[in-house]
Structure formats: structure tokens, C-alpha cells
Amino acid sequence: MKTTGFRRFGVALLFFCCLFLGFGCGKKSDNSSGEANPPQSYSPGKTTVLVPEAPGTVTTGDDPLILDFSNASQGYFMGKLTQSDTKINIQITGPDDVCYKYFLSESDVWTSFPITAGNGAYLVLAYQEISDGQFASLFSYALDVTLDSEFYPFLYPNQYVNFTADSEAISLAASLTKDAAEDLDALDAIYQYVTTHITYDTEKAATVDTGYLPDIDETLRTGTGICFDYAALTASMLRSLSIPARLDIGYSGDVRHAWVDVYIESIGWVKRAVEFNGNEWKMIDPTFAAAAGNEDNQAIDEYIGDSSNYTVQYIR
């Protein structure tokens, strides 16, 4: 891979990244991997979309919310709102002590939520909105998780990294990588496409609603997005190619931001999402890389390459 340069205005992107990205509380998680390989291997141009299911083997709740933990060993659980005109808040805290908050407002649709803190004990709390912004407790559920593979949470789609086999972005991922012999080549192909075809939307970043969730196909169709959109699109395309990818939410300096980590079979987890310039791994944050150019690229490259500028709070 070659290093991508940045125009002077790329620095300004820092100040427009969204304030909404990670609902939650607690200390940052450290989700390192000690496993040799993912459960499936990358193959050029071949997409494999894992489909979350709710078989009903292990469930809790009733109206207005049902949670299905039948496939917790696959790194996710499912939730369905059974009543319309209400809003649900789901909180899950695992062995990393990070509290994740998710919201449901669409009824009669199963939604997948990732289990990202690895093996161990989790506590799930459910709340229902009783007035504007006020929630009352519905129930709690204690869950003990042993993952079939620690990579599964980063291969399945979920509420934040949302894709299906019919997504336009997934067809594009197959097309872009048909000649990419290795997962590293596929990463480069996806990265180069996203950073050269999506334009950063400063107006959207300034006006986006709290609780916003990315739509990867809309990002492709409009050719614009914010940091969350870049990261979700990149992670979705990589996951569909059997390349584990984490969507990280946290801070770039003092500003809210989102980026991706990628698992390369010959290397392992490449944290804080990086690119290889022929000599060293450097940050590949796709939002900043979209401002590619030839002016003043050294300062941007130095910022992106310094991992201390990035703090992970939540992993989706």
C-alpha cells in the first residue's frame, strides 16, 4: 500500500466529527485477541454474510420487549420491540466494565446487538420510555458468555455495522476485491475506494441527531458521510469478505470520532486501523484519508500515525 496524502483542510475534519457516536459509560475496553485465525478465511471476491437469528431457545422479556440470547456464543443477541409508539433502552455491561447503551423504536423487527467484551459475565438491563427522555426499568438479565470464536462479534452485522447480502455495498466489496489475492490487498482496495469516493459532509456533522445510525448504502448513493458513516461502510465491506473489523468509537484528541481496526491473518489485529506504506504501519482513519492530496500531508500523517491521539471508548 502507498501512503495517502492530505490537503490542508483535512485538519478541519477533526472539528466536525459527531458528538453522538457512543452512548455509554465506564472505562475503555481492551479487547485483544489471542486466537490464531478467524473461523473463516478471506477468498478473493467472495462475500460471506453471516445472518443473525432469533431461534427462541433462550429468551427473556415480554411485551413490549423480547430479548433472544440463543446465539450469544456467536457474539450477539437479538431484540424485538413488540409495541409501537414506544422507545426502549437496552444497556449491556460485560467483563470490561464498559456500559453500552442501545435504543429500539421500530416495532416487530429483530435487531442484532454485538457482544464485544469477550468471554465472561454480562448484565443486561432494559428500560422503557415513559415520557420524553424519562425511562423506567423493565427487567434485568444475567448472561454468561463463552464465544465459539472471539472474532464472531466482528464478522456479524449489528445495529451499528448494518448490512445484508443484498446491500449494494456488499456487492461492491466483492467487485473491488476479485483480483485481491490476500486480505491485505482487499483492505487496500476497500480503503482506496471509500477514501476516494466518499466526501466528508460537514453540514451533516453539525446537524446530525443524537442516536444517528449509519446507512451504508445511502452513504454509497450520496457519496457523502461523516466519520461514523466512513467507519461503518468500511467495517461492513470488510466483514462481508470474512475479514474481522471493529468499529471503534472514541476520541481523536478532544473530539468525538469513529474508525476501524482490522484483523490480517499474517499479522493479527492491526489496532487503530492502519495502512502499510512499504516500511511501517500507519493510521488509516478513513475519514481523514478521504481528504487525500499533496499539500501539507506530513502534519496530517504524523497526527494519524500517533496512536496517542486516539482513545477508544466503545467497540461495535
User: What are the low-pLDDT stretches, counting only 5+ consecutive residues below 50?
Assistant: 1-33, 273-283, 292-296
**What oligomeric assembly is this protein in?**
single chain
- Strand/helix succession: EEEEEEEEEHHEHHEHEEEEEHHE
Count the E strands.
Answer: 17
Beta-strand fraction estimate: 25-35%
- Coarse shape: globular
- End-to-end Cα distance, whole Å, is 26 Å
Largest sheet: 5 strands, antiparallel
Q: Biggest sheet: strands side by side, in what order?
A: 1-6-5-8-9
What structural class should be given to the helix and strand makeup? alpha+beta
Number of helices: 7
Arithmetic mean pLDDT: 81
Rg over CA atoms:
19 Å
Helical content (DSSP H or I, runs of 4+)? 10-25%
Protein architecture, described:
This protein has 316 residues and is an alpha+beta fold. Helices cover 20% and strands 30% of the residues. Strands 1-6-5-8-9 form a five-stranded antiparallel sheet, with no helix packed on it. The chain has a four-stranded antiparallel sheet with strand order 2-3-4-7, with no helix packed on it. Helix 1 packs across helix 5 (227-240) and helix 2 runs antiparallel to helix 5 (227-240). It is globular and about 50 Å long. It starts with 23 loop residues before the first strand and ends with a strand. The relative contact order is 0.20. The model is unreliable at 1-33, 273-283 and 292-296 (pLDDT under 50).
